[in-house]
Design goal:
The complex is a heterodimer of chains A (467) and B (524). With 467 residues, chain A is mainly α. Chain A has helices at 7-24, 35-48, 65-87, 96-114, 118-135, 143-174, 179-183, 193-210, 218-225, 228-234, 237-250, 258-278, 284-305, 308-335, 350-353, 355-369, 375-389, 393-419, 434-449, 452-465; strands at residues 54-56, 61-63. In chain A, 63% of the residues are buried. Classes of the chains: A mainly alpha (467), B mainly alpha (524).
């Protein structure tokens, strides 16, 4: 065990420091030229550290299969977001400190992936959230962004208080904050009522991050108010942090306990509410916001199942979710004019104006529906089969019926792009940055056609939690 | 990968169009794109020739290819051909070059993308018919929606947006529950492999719900009355090649699904629901015929006639007799050939007159004799005139119906008469009606058009005059399915006059010996 096993975290911390230096230096130069490349090296570092195992800081910080898997995904997502942001040449707010806050938040999430002790976990969560509180209002002098920032921080503060309150109950009932210690005890309501209430409240903190019903109200508003690039980040990477913690926590509750039933019900309500609300949206970012509420619901299928298959399905699905959502937001960022929010009508004729973007959008949309052969389908199949195996038949039926609801608005994206007519000029988008979108689309397809390597990795990670 | 015959025939049939589709994206000139796709189409037909070496009395599944896909969940890449799927695959391969030729001048915008869609359709349709893994089947089943949607939405008629969305929503919504059924079968049967699932027998309660979930997906695809409303809209708006693929191949997926999944996997539930499905089929036959009688749009007329013809197919399937089912499979093939040919011809007519109304296309017999000759051949085949292919299929289904229950046979006969009424009315007006909009510039069939239609025309007579060859190939597979079904139902203790409540108490018997035998012959 050496310091090198922490390479992904250290690399990102180094990036934060470099960006800090760049932001206080007198020469106001753009960091966009080197940042995507440096973040890409971070992906390599995470890949290198994939097999690392060990414990640090009195076993509060643990490198295991799950944490290394999620670090890889976070590093990848961060690299893509910086790539998308670097493609935006007009953005005036994309200063070094913007990127520094972004990197700091990603760093917090990376730490979160490794935390196996409740207080450490809470600190890592706050580390990633604080930089987001500062990031969201950064959009020139836009009032909507200020509103979004306030909404995010108010909701966040309230839910954090709730989570801390729950944490106190858990400590009081179980006398330990180590997850391994907590896992060894019973979590049925009859045996430990106070701990179950505490855990439910503590979970709420992560439901908020994940935008699960009824903690989702901030989500569409914040996406709409924040800069397109910020929305791309907020919609994807922080969800990973929430999923990794929920996977860790769900590993010690068995299916059909009170807590798991709550997860299942919230999941069912969340997907239905998210999909129904998304049907009427015109603003692309709001639409994707409600769609992410629905997808948070799908992830609950795996968590409620509580089995090793369920955990690996949830981990796999969050990877698929990141890929397809980043692809969708990539297109949103690319078609936005003057940093405005694009609406569905802005997609009209995209097929002629930017064929490559239209194709990327189509792949992302069909993957979000869960059509084969895409990553979205593979992930959904794993979730459904994990939930069905644990007896959640009703939940599976609700999930597949939700697919039927969601087709309409996802197909709407493709319909506007391919059959809409528009006189708008062709979209100028630097060819070099097209590589990010193209790679995302290819990965979405590849992960759908050959899910085995990634699924095995996720299964191995989940197997360690759930022997 | 493990293959049975050394050369992976089925995989090649799927991979070649996919690779060609990717290659097309890098081609600039329209002519190159068309010629390449045509060449791939001809190659596809040649590649499918080895399938004619199918041995009817041999193993249940031949040309089997197997490879690991996702071992952790038991998903495999498993392909194979049997009597149920053999002719569907051949038909799919044949349709590709014909569609390219038929759209040579019809499609003039976004040519590359059009051909990419055609190739993707071909690949996924062959995948649907050859897949022997439940998930793999579902992947192809759904993957086919996207290119078909684009074919209608981008190259379709004036109401294409409406028609394409309706098509997509209807078919996808129907098949979402199929996914739940697949997941459920994995839990109960322990595998996604279709041959292995076929060996097992399931409790009636499970069969009941699984049958409903699967039948909904298949019934929408067929489409069975009353789920047919997407079909006329999609047919009318789709470009000629899209209509041809829709009629010739897509609709067959539904009936193929019934044969491949509902009968072998949920035999008791299929038996229970058979009266209902027979009634719905007859309703479809009569309804489709009546509505077709009142159409003024040629394409709509043929679309409604499809509803009627597919009613005969589902009727044949749910008779559960060898005659009925072989008639149904033959009718699937025939409907593909005949209706495919008719849609192709309507496309050619539309290129000339820019209208699909009967009134605008009247009295062409004098001016376009060759065209009318072929149109007549396909029309007569469509109304099941003796000597043409459809006659054989329809007669077999009717024989099966009269054998099973004469009342069912009597109820289906008016459908056959209606077919004669609407097709002859159409044929009469288009051939001998008062010429309304004819212009000398229209011209008779050109060489390319002859080449497009001739193979289908030859098949009409070939199957019509020598059907024994086809029937011989498919009959062993049908016997296998039906006898396994009967054996399972007997082992379960199901008999005809049981009440629903009693049926629900039927548990799954232990493995059924005959059914297991039939499948273990797969690798001799």
């Amino acid at each position: 065990m050496s310091i090198f096993s922490l390479l992904p975290e250290l690399w990102l911390l180094g990036l934060v420091c470099a960006l800090f230096v760049a932001s206080i230096s007198d020469k106001k130069q753009s960091v966009a030229s080197w940042l995507p490349m440096a973040a890409g090296l971070g992906v390599l570092a995470a890949l290198f550290a994939l097999g690392e195992r060990g414990e640090f800081l009195y076993a509060a910080y643990k490198l295991d299969g799950l944490s290394q898997f999620f670090k890889l995904v976070i590093a990848f997502g961060f690299a893509v977001v910086t790539g998308i942001a670097a493609g935006n040449k007009e953005g005036k707010d994309l200063t070094p400190d913007y990127f520094m806050l972004l990197a700091l938040s990603a760093w917090g999430l990376m730490l979160l992936a490794s935390c196996v002790e409740l207080i450490t976990l809470y600190l890592a969560l706050e580390l990633s959230s604080y930089s987001l509180y500062a990031l969201i209002p950064l959009r020139g002098k836009d009032r909507r962004a200020a509103e979004a920032g306030i909404k995010y921080i108010l909701f966040g503060a309230a839910v954090t208080a709730l989570a801390l309150f729950g944490l106190s109950y858990i400590i009081a009932a179980k006398h330990t904050t180590y997850l391994s210690g907590l896992a060894a005890t019973s979590w049925s309501f009859a045996d430990a009522p106070m701990a179950v209430i505490g855990l439910t409240l503590f979970l709420a903190g992560f439901f908020y991050k994940l935008a699960l019903f009824p903690f989702h109200f901030w989500c569409p508003d914040v996406y709409q108010g924040a800069k397109n690039e910020t929305a791309a980040y907020v919609a994807t990477i922080p969800k990973l942090g929430a999923v990794v913690v929920l996977v860790r926590l769900a590993a010690f509750v068995a299916p059909h306990l009170e807590v798991t039933t709550i997860l299942a019900i919230l999941g069912a309500v969340s997907m239905t509410a998210g999909n129904l609300a998304a049907l009427v949206q015109r603003d692309l970012k709001r639409l994707l916001g409600f769609s992410s509420v629905a997808h948070a619901g799908y992830v609950m299928l795996g968590l409620a199942a509580g089995s090793a298959a369920g955990m690996s399905a949830a981990a796999f699905y969050s990877l698929a979710y990141i890929l397809m959502n980043l692809a969708a937001f990539y297109v949103v960022c690319a078609i936005a004019k003057n940093d405005e929010n694009p609406s569905l009508d802005d997609l009209d004729g995209l097929y002629k104006r930017a064929p490559a973007l239209a194709m990327i959008l189509a792949v992302a949309a069909f993957s979000l529906v869960g059509l084969p052969p895409t990553a979205g389908f593979a992930g959904k199949l794993f979730l459904l089969s994990a939930a069905w195996d644990q007896g959640y038949h009703w939940l599976v039926i609700v999930a597949v019926l939700n697919t039927a609801i969601s087709i309409y608005y996802y197909l709407g994206l493709v319909r506007h792009a391919y059959t809409g007519e528009s006189d708008a000029p062709a979209i100028v988008w630097p060819r070099g940055y097209l590589i990010f979108g193209g790679a995302l689309a290819v990965l979405v397809l590849l992960l759908g056609i050959l899910p085995a390597p990634m699924y095995d990795l996720a299964a191995q990670a989940a197997g360690q939690l759930h022997p | 990968m493990m293959t049975q015959n050394g050369f992976p025939v089925v995989t090649a049939l799927i991979v070649v169009p996919l690779a060609a589709a990717v290659a097309l994206l890098f081609m600039r000139r329209e002519w190159t794109v068309r010629v390449t796709t045509l060449a791939v189409g001809i190659l596809e037909c040649l590649l499918s020739l080895p399938l004619l070496g199918y041995v009817p009395d041999g193993a249940a599944f031949q040309f089997v290819e197997k490879a690991d896909w996702l071992p952790a969940l038991g998903m495999t890449y498993h392909m194979g051909v049997d009597g149920l799927s053999l002719y569907m695959i051949l038909l799919t391969a044949l349709m590709l070059p014909l569609c390219v030729l038929g759209s040579w001048t019809y499609i003039s915008k976004r040519v590359t993308e059009f051909h990419v869609c055609l190739l993707l359709m071909t690949a996924s349709c062959i995948g649907v018919f050859a897949a022997l893994d439940f998930v793999l089947f579902y992947v192809f089943w759904e993957a086919m929606l996207v290119p078909m949607y684009l074919l209608i939405a981008v190259w379709g008629g004036p109401r294409r947006r409406y028609a394409s969305i309706k098509f997509f929503l209807y078919t996808l919504a129907g098949s979402t529950l199929l996914l739940a059924a697949i997941v459920a079968f994995r839990q109960v049967g322990g595998t996604f492999s279709i041959p292995e699932l076929m060996e097992k027998s399931y409790a009636f309660k499970f069969q009941f719900w699984a049958f409903l979930a699967m039948a909904l997906a298949f019934a929408i695809k067929v489409p069975m009355f009353p789920f047919h409303t997407w079909l006329p809209a999609a047919h009318v708006e789709a470009p000629a090649a899209g209509s041809v693929l829709l009629a010739a191949i897509l609709l067959k997926m539904g009936t193929y699904g019934f044969l491949r999944f509902c009968l072998p996997l949920t035999p008791a539930a299929a038996e229970t629901f058979a009266p209902l499905l027979i009634a719905v089929s007859i309703a479809g036959i009569i309804y489709g015929g009546c509505i077709a009688l009142g159409q003024t749009d040629i394409k709509k007329l043929i679309a409604y006639s499809s509803v009627g013809h597919m009613g005969f197919v589902t009727l044949g399937i749910f008779l559960f007799s060898v005659k009925g089912v072989s008639g149904a499979i033959l009718q699937m093939l025939n409907h593909g050939i005949t209706t495919g040919g008719l849609f192709m011809m309507i496309g050619l007519l539309y290129e000339r007159s820019h209208s699909r109304e009967i009134a605008d296309n009247q009295g062409l017999g004098k001016f376009m004799p060759a065209f009318m000759f072929l149109f007549g051949v396909f029309s007569l085949s469509s109304l099941a005139f003796p000597g043409t292919n459809s006659f054989i299929g329809e007669v077999l289904v009717l024989i099966g119906a009269f054998q099973g229950n004469p009342w069912v046979g009597f109820a289906a006969v008016p459908g056959a008469m209606l077919a004669a009424a609407y097709m002859l009315r159409l044929l009469q007006r288009v051939t001998w009606g008062e010429p309304a909009a004819y212009k000398p510039s229209w011209g008779d069939l050109g060489l390319r058009e002859w080449v497009t239609l001739a193979p289908l025309g030859i098949l009409v007579f070939y199957i019509g005059l020598a059907p024994a060859l086809c029937i011989k190939t498919i009959e062993p597979s049908i016997t296998r399915v039906l006898s396994a079904m009967e054996a399972k139902n007997t082992a379960m203790g199901l008999h005809k006059d049981m009440s629903m409540a009693e049926r629900f108490n039927l548990a799954a018997p232990l493995a059924v010996a005959e059914a297991a035998d039939a499948v273990s012959k797969e690798h001799p």
